[in-house]
Design brief:
Number of helices: 12
Order of helices and strands: EEHEEHHEHHEHEHEEHEHEHEHHEEEE
Structural class: alpha/beta
CATH class of the largest domain: Alpha Beta
Strand content: 15-25%
Shape: globular
Number of strands: 16
CATH architecture of the largest domain: 3-Layer(aba) Sandwich
């Protein structure tokens, strides 16, 4: 089956983020120019963007005790995405739904806690109930069990670029007829181990801020959360009577020993070529920039090389922090909202003198590019298009 044979569309969204639970809260605070980065309520001396919503509101109390925080975040996003797609719970005679999610660390808190107890107190003192949480794919399996997802189940580990890779892999499964419907995106929890690892590598801002592309940027601030899109074939969505919001188009990625301008530019050019569009057709860019002195510089130089600084750019990690495996999924939603509203969200803390603006900006066009960058040299770009029907004139913005 050729790539052109099947169009992959988005028919639902589930998001739990530091901006709140659900798309409405996410959109309202995003366009208000708020930042969720603030002194941590959990970790002394840290500045983070934390999910404060009570997760059991959606999960209930039954069977929740065995789910760690990453699994809970992913499960809430799964629940919200299924509901938004018009599927309260998959049934035997309904579509077989899969789950492909990206993460940087997975259930690191559970893994290190289990191992530490085993080493310091002995194997007989670890809880067998916690053992299933010690594999990085556990959250995806737990969410699939809880919501009856019988399709493909895969966990993608590619740092902060993981969610874009997950969206692309899920789209490819659908394009080539290997799946009909897949929930795809990312999830990540905040934990002491993640904070320590970023601090140890010098990636956190000593000032506790996330200032993407700023001349005085000195690192990032960590966030958390989960976001999933319901991806279906065009025919599958039509059979269920669902109006899509956006279409998944081209993807590009490049790997080097570290993220360079050439690496980032190559990923962007691949995404454009695979989407069969030119740079001047892109209405806006959702940047990967997080405040990293080196990665932000590479992306900025790549943007100028590919687009000549002519396309409006937003850097939403100033809003929700470096959410690691969830970042790409959050950014994809930012891109879809921009196409829906024909308005690009503001970037908190931007001066307006460079690529970014502290004010919302009008855009014109049907294509958005979403970028994601890991700290080990991987750069990914995804292009989405505002949905138009087979005739090219039917549009819908339901289920962004």
């Amino acid at each position: 089956m050729s790539r052109e044979a099947t169009r992959v569309v988005v028919t639902g969204v589930g998001v739990i983020s530091p901006l709140g639970a659900g798309l409405a809260d996410f959109e309202q605070r995003l366009y208000a120019g708020e930042s969720a980065v603030r002194p941590s309520a959990q970790f002394s001396g840290a500045t983070t963007a934390e999910v404060t919503a009570e997760l059991t509101t959606w999960l209930g109390n039954k069977g929740v005790r065995v789910l760690d925080r990453t699994a809970r975040l992913l499960s809430v996003a799964t629940h919200l995405a299924l509901c938004d797609a018009g599927i309260e719970r998959p049934t035997e005679d309904g579509p077989e739904i899969g789950l492909v999610y990206g993460t940087m660390f997975g259930s690191m808190r559970s893994i290190t806690s289990f191992d530490w107890t085993s080493v310091t107190e002995g194997p007989s003192y670890v809880s067998p109930m916690e053992f299933p949480n010690t594999v990085i794919s556990s959250p995806g399996g737990q969410a699939a069990i809880k919501y009856g997802l019988r399709g493909v189940n895969s966990t993608i580990c590619a740092g902060p670029a993981a969610a874009l890779h997950a969206l692309n892999i899920a789209a490819e499964f659908i394009r080539f007829g290997r799946a009909g419907a897949i929930l795809a995106g990312g999830a990540e929890e905040l934990c002491q181990e993640a904070l320590y690892s970023f601090q140890h590598r010098g990636l956190l801002s000593p000032r506790g801020v996330a200032r993407p592309f700023a001349t005085d940027r000195d690192g990032t601030a960590l966030g958390e959360g989960s976001a999933l899109w319901m991806l279906e074939s065009e025919d599958g969505a039509a059979a269920r009577g669902r109006a899509p919001s956006v279409e998944i188009l081209g993807f590009g990625e490049s790997q080097d020993s570290q993220t360079t301008a050439e690496c980032a530019a190559e990923a962007m050019r691949q995404a454009l070529a695979n989407s069969q569009i030119s740079p001047d057709q892109v209405a806006c860019i959702i940047a990967a920039a997080s405040g990293s002195p080196t990665v932000d510089d590479a992306e900025a130089r790549a943007l100028f090389a590919v687009f000549n600084d002519d396309v409006p750019v937003c850097a939403p990690k100033a809003t929700f922090g470096e959410a690691m495996g969830a970042s790409g999924a959050f950014s994809a939603i930012v891109g879809a909202l921009a196409l829906h509203r024909q308005t690009l969200a503001p970037t908190p803390g931007a001066t307006g003198a460079g690529l970014l603006s502290p004010e919302a900006r009008k855009i014109a066009g049907d294509y958005a590019m979403i970028n994601a960058a890991s700290y080990d040299g991987n750069f990914a770009s995804l292009i989405v298009r505002a949905w138009s029907g087979p005739g090219g004139n039917e549009t819908s913005h339901a289920g962004i």
